[in-house]
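Review this fold:
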Amino acid sequence: MDTPRLAVIGLGPMGRPIAATLLDAGLTPVVWNRTASRADDLVAAGAIRAPSPADAAAPVILSVLPDVAPLRELLDTPTRRAWGAAGARLVVLSTTGPEQVIELAEDLSADGIGVVDAPMSGGVAGAAAGTLSLMVGGARDDVAAVLDVLEVIGGTVVHLGPLGTGMVAKLCNQVVVGGTLAALAEAVALARRSGLDVQQLMTLLEGGLARSEVLAQKRDKLIWREYSLGGSADNQVKDLRYATAAAESADLPARLLPTLLQLYRETVDRGDGGKDHAVVQELYLEPDR
C-alpha cells in the first residue's frame, strides 16, 4: 500500500474538526487517537484509522495533542523508524514553549524527521471552517513541504522565521486571548451585579470598539454560564506559564501576565480546569464556592 500523504494525531476539540476539514477538501488523512472510538465518524467519512502512532507514518503529520510532552510519549523506537522512513515532517499545532519544540526537533533529527511549529488560533469554529490563523516557524524547506496542507486548514498562514518563532507568536496571542476573556468576565459580572440585561450589554459591546473574535465565540458561554469546550482553563494556564517563561527569557517586565496566570490558576484550583476557559467568570459570580 502506498504511504498516505498526511496524518492527524490527536482528535480532541481541535483535532477532530481539523481532520474533518481535510476530508471536506478531498484529502484522505490517516487519523490516530488514544481513544480509538473518537475516530469513528471520521473513518465513516473516508479517513483511514491508524491502529498505532507508527501506523500513522506519512510525509506530513499534524500533531494536535495538547503539548509536546504527550507527543513525546508516543515516540517509541518503532514510531520514530516508521515516521523517518516516510520522510515525515511533524507539524506541532498545539501550544508549547519555543525551547520545547526546538529540543524535540533536535531529538528527532537523527531519525530523519523534520519539525515545524505551527500553533493555531481561531478556536473550534476556525478549525471547522478552515480559517485558523497559523503561526509558522521552521526551516524554509520543511515549511514548503507542509504549506499546502496548512493552507487547507488555515485562512491566515505566516512563516515567521526559524523553528520556535511560531510558538513565540502564539504565546503573544494567548496573552491577548486570556486577557480579553478575563476582561469580558469581569465586565459581565459588573453588569449582572448592577442589574443590566447581559444580552443587551453583549449587543452593545459587539457594536463598538470592544467587539472581538473572543467576544463572538464566547458570548453565549458568558451569558448562559455554559462551558463546553472550546479551549480549556487547564490549557490556558499551560499557555500562560509558557508565556511567562518566554517573557523572562526576553527580559520583559511583564505586568499583566502574572495577574492573568493567577486568575486562571484559581479557576483550575476550583475544579474547573476541564471546562472552557470562559469559566473564569465564575470567580466573580460564585467567589466563595
